[in-house]
Design goal:
Layout: H1 2-11, H2 13-42, H3 45-62, H4 79-114, H5 122-126, H6 128-147, H7 151-171, H8 179-199, H9 208-217, H10 220-246, H11 249-286, H12 292-325, H13 330-352, H14 354-358, H15 362-377, H16 387-421
Helix pairs in contact: 1-2, 2-7, 2-11, 3-6, 3-10, 3-11, 4-6, 4-9, 6-7, 6-8, 7-8, 10-11, 10-15, 11-12, 11-13, 12-13, 13-16, 15-16
Pfam families: Polysacc_synt_3
Keywords: Cell membrane, Membrane, Transmembrane, Transmembrane helix
Subcellular location: Cell membrane
């Protein structure tokens, strides 16, 4: 049986690589999911609401902390150039870490006042830059491992991150409410250290001219990819701030559970597939080979998964949420039936967006991200009578935008293949 499985992997390396990438994420998300019923019964919706605000801030900061040079690590032909990029990321991240930490120290009272958050949560916000710093370094080291096709090590790093996070949250959760946010920080530290050790990189000293040469060669990433990535990350996390600006931190807590249940499957498959699509299409583009087969394969796999997920959530969400988390979290189930439509479109087209990066269609991707940002941000200036009206509007806007995004991805992929034929 083992021999047959090996032959299958050898014949379809795409399946083998995706299996390794997804396996660690599946196990790590499973660990998080298994302990959610315990955590939801021991922490209040307000606790999870504040934690969600902090984690969304981490995500937004991480979107620009390395000026998107982490996405360039896979591309260089020479391995030494990839290591130079890692050096740049380290220096840039340290700069932003200090800047953000000082900003929080100065404006913490204003932050708490604006978001109407209890002052007992002040300490949580100071951990945001620390968590962002270790997370972006972990992502960068993981991209280096993907470059070297060491997918098993990537999976182990993801598993170590989530395992240590949940361990801290559960272990001291009874006695220390801040364990929710501390768990995230500890998880990112483990993630960073484990990924770095797996790379086996010996950091050597580069002179300024060498690093400047790399900076110039890959300046498309900070120039054209930082802003759209910030906008995209903000849009992906905007629902938290949108609800917080119009309603209460308790509603944010309900929404946190909804988003965790809806987006966990994305981490299981679509994120891993996005990394795979970037790696495989980059290689084919460098060799002037067709990429449409990779594009169609990724689309069909994600579409099939999304359809199954939609059926489960739309028809059985209330029973699932009550059974797992209790009747106190029924509002999360109601929200999930609305947001699952947007989630499915995001599952399919967000990871496929990596193909535009591989095709160096960074400007076009930036324009789409800007349009998406403007469309979603407009909801902050519109008043609705209920939270459900906000959710419906949010879904409609995003579905239309992702359909346009999909058309762009297939169109530019076909243009690439047509050039090869000619």
């Amino acid at each position: 049986m083992e021999l047959k499985n090996y032959k299958l992997f050898a014949k379809f390396p795409f399946i083998k690589d995706l299996t390794f990438l997804a396996s660690g994420t599946i196990l790590s998300q499973l660990i998080v999911f298994l302990f959610q019923p315990f955590l939801k019964r021991n922490f209040s919706p307000e606790d999870f609401g504040v934690m969600d605000v902090c984690l969304k801030a981490v995500a937004i900061i991480s979107s620009f902390m390395a000026l998107k040079f982490d996405g360039a690590i896979i591309l260089p032909k020479k391995n030494i150039d990839a290591i130079k990029i890692l050096h740049l990321i380290l220096y840039i991240s340290i700069f932003f870490f200090v800047l953000i930490l000082l900003s929080i120290a100065i404006f913490i009272d204003d932050i708490v006042l604006v978001f109407e958050i209890d002052s007992k949560y002040k300490f949580w916000f100071f951990l945001i830059p620390f968590s962002s710093f270790f997370y972006i370094l972990g992502i960068s080291f993981d991209n280096y491992l993907i470059r070297k096709k060491r997918f098993k090590q990537v999976s182990i790093s993801k598993l170590s991150r989530r395992s240590s996070e949940v361990f801290v949250q559960v272990l001291i959760g009874y006695y220390y409410k801040s364990s929710l946010i501390i768990g995230d920080l500890i998880g990112n530290i483990f993630y960073c250290v484990r990924s770095y050790k797996s790379t086996s990189i010996n950091f050597i000293k580069f002179n300024k001219k060498e690093l400047q040469a790399i900076l110039v060669e890959y300046n498309d990433f900070p120039k054209y990819n930082v802003l759209p990535n910030i906008l995209n990350t903000f849009v992906l996390n905007s629902l938290t701030f949108l609800i917080l600006s119009k309603f209460t931190i308790k509603e944010v807590g309900f929404l946190e559970l909804t988003q965790k249940i809806l987006f966990a499957p994305a981490a299981i498959l679509s994120i891993s597939l996005g990394q795979m699509l970037l790696q495989r299409t980059s290689i084919k583009i460098a060799k002037s080979e067709s990429i449409l087969q990779e594009v169609y394969r990724g689309f069909l796999l994600l579409a099939a998964f999304s359809l199954l997920f939609f059926i489960v959530i739309y028809f059985f969400s209330e029973e699932i949420f009550i059974f797992l988390f209790g009747e106190d979290w029924i509002h999360s189930a109601y929200y999930s039936k609305i947001l699952v439509v947007y989630t499915c479109f995001n599952f399919v087209f967000s990871p496929m967006g990596k193909i535009l990066i591989a095709l160096r269609r960074i400007k076009q991707n930036a324009i789409w991200q800007l349009v998406k940002f403007i469309s979603v941000i407009s909801l902050f200036f519109i008043h609705y009578n209920s939270i459900y009206d906000y959710l419906y509007s949010y879904v409609i806007i995003n579905v239309i935008l992702y359909i346009i995004y999909g058309i762009m991805i297939f169109s530019y992929s076909k243009k690439h293949d047509n050039k090869i034929v000619k």
